TrEMBL record:
InterPro entries: Diverse_substrate_MTase (IPR051052), Methyltransf_11 (IPR013216), SAM-dependent_MTases_sf (IPR029063)
Domain named Methyltransferase type: residues: 31-120
Similarity-based family: Belongs to the methyltransferase superfamily.
Assigned keywords, A-Z: Methyltransferase, Transferase
The protein, known as: Methyltransferase type 11
Pfam families to which the protein is assigned, alphabetical: Methyltransf_11
Amino acid sequence: MTEKNGRRWNHNIHYHPRILRAVPGGAQRALDVGCGEGMLARALRRTVPHVTAIDLDAPSIDQGRRYPDEVDYVLGDFLNHPFEPASFDVVASVATLHHMDAATGLARMRDLLRPGGVLAVVGLARDTLPRDLPYVLSAIAVGAAHRAVKGEWQHPSPVVWPPPVTYPEMRALAAEILPGSRYRRHILWRYSIIWRKPRD
């Protein structure tokens, strides 16, 4: 399935509102890391005047550029693209960190934020069975209910499975690299990290 009633839904899109609620008032520049075809970037552009969206997947970037949305789409690797340090008010990322070394990715996102800026991440981590079996069973039931009502849009970007980092490992990385961040595990096989960079 793709869309129902002209609206897209999947596990990643389900948590876009968590990213959008974290955008600080007055934000002028946002970066969407691993933007895919740009759905989140377009949503950010509705409240942030300057949005840059970067991805390594050329077909996804080509799709994003077809929208007349004034988003700056960049084909490249955000780990080494020559962004100016501390140049974004918002750095957002959905389902991207498991495509790279998570510690390196989080540190790079942190360094691209201006003081007072917000990092908002939704990611995938690996379940550990049997400990995580209650989470897995709940996710299966809740996901099936959502799909029955909303359908499921299949994004065009490459998939990495299983994620290399477990949920506890991701929580520990966030605490180490982003002190004071808010980590939360969500029902639909996702976690979120929200962090505001301290003002020096």
